[in-house]
Amino acid sequence: MGFVQDKKDFAKQVQQISFYPPKSEKEYKSIQKIRSYPKLLILELSPNINLYKMTEYYKEHNVMIALLISMKDTKYLPDLFKLDIQGYFLKGMKSIERQVAVNSLLNGIQYIHPTFVPILLERYKTYKTLRKEPLNRPKSLLSQREWDILEQIVQGKSNDKIGEHFNIVIKTVKNHVSCILKKLNVSNRTRAAVVAIKNNWVSLK
């Protein structure tokens, strides 16, 4: 597992960390010569490295990647989200949040810090509305009812409202939502909404 060098508290939490972050293209190229790769690499944004090139390189070697993003850099979130990496961590997040984030990644679940979710949703909604692209739903991923409920989730509807809309009981709604989260491999409905919008699976009204 890799980490940003000055995050000593993070290193103490996860003992198997043994990698330092490249601070420049030169360091990045020297790292390419190493044949032993970490399981998870956590990077901080830096103007001195080609982030796209770096993420592509580590993806080829099956390394999970997470970015530490400060609040002042949230304007770059839509572009950073296109990198399609495993983690988007808030710089300065609490220790317990870091533990949850790392555990999510190690269990194969993408982690997006809750602070980023409203920003991503709003910007992707605007982008998709302007583009007006046709839906691109993968076959057999969800049932038709689940797609319909996912549309409601993206619109911010509560379970009560979804139940009223489809004339079904709350227990049935909860069962559908649980199945959707499991099939999309996400931990909550806001992340399900982000994934749905990003992949153009739902219409935005």
From TrEMBL:
Gene3D superfamilies: 3.40.50.2300
Keyword terms, alphabetized: DNA-binding, Transcription, Transcription regulation
Gene Ontology terms: biological process: regulation of DNA-templated transcription
GO molecular function: DNA binding
SMART domains according to UniProt: HTH_LUXR
Source species, domain of life: Bacteria
Full protein name: Response regulator transcription factor
Species name: Lederbergia citri
